[in-house]
Amino acid sequence: MPEGGDYNAEALVVTIDIMGTDVQRVMIDTGNNVNVFYMDVFQKFKLDPIELMPIGTPLSGFTGDIIHPEGKITLPVEIGTYPRVVIEDYRDNFLNTALDEYKQCLVIGDKYDVRVVFRLVSLWFNLSTRSIVVDSMLCTANEVQSYKFVPLVYQIASRMGNTKDGHGPQSFQFALVSLVKKLAIDHPYHTIFQLLALANGDCIKDKQRSKNSFMVDIDKKVAAENLLKELSSYHGAILRQMKQMVEIYIKLAELETKTEDTNKKVTLPRDIRSFRACRLSATNPGYC
User: Fold this and answer.
1) pTM reported for the whole predicted model
2) 133 CB-side CA count, 13 A
3) Contact 183, 150 (CB under 8 A)
């Protein structure tokens, strides 16, 4: 703003980007609400007059004369510090290209699967707030075979329920849960145990609680429980057997033991011995 005077009445002259072209000496007048575009500038942009929408309201010119405008038009405008705007554009284009090329690499072949999956998931996690990343995740989950993400199922599932990522159909959490759900449907024995671990992450006896005890965040626990409910319609029998097996392991972990019992046989409680043998069901062809 110019020095001195009433800042609310002073004009500001800037350079802005209109349709990819720098337009200099654009005056921003805080006293008016009309953006004037002279016909010679309109012609230099090679715009078609047919794009003009009729307007019946006359304008008062700078000299006080009444001017009847040719029409009105809406154009994309970008205002910002030139180097920063350009760098952000380059960054977005590079990120979009990287995400798409990694996805294509996974779709076309399997030679670089492990390396590409690690790099792709790293980009997702580090830039989870970007809409480009969310779109990439949804697209990749639909086009890439799910088994390629199995090596990172633990890390992927552990990001569920993070409230910082937001919620909704266009959020990182929505895309993440969609991917985990697909992994669980296609590869239940690799994925469901991870979800059960999150769902039971707060199962610690009061006597065994300590400052070093690790407990899963309640948001992760709830997210895992909700997804397990959805999966019951796909792998109901497998899920029931897995839950039973996990319950046995939790009860065994809660058994009170002493140092002198190391070389002795420990008698299992009756509720554990009464469990029927678990025989996990076979999955459908193509699942693992």
Assistant:
1) 0.63
2) 18
3) yes
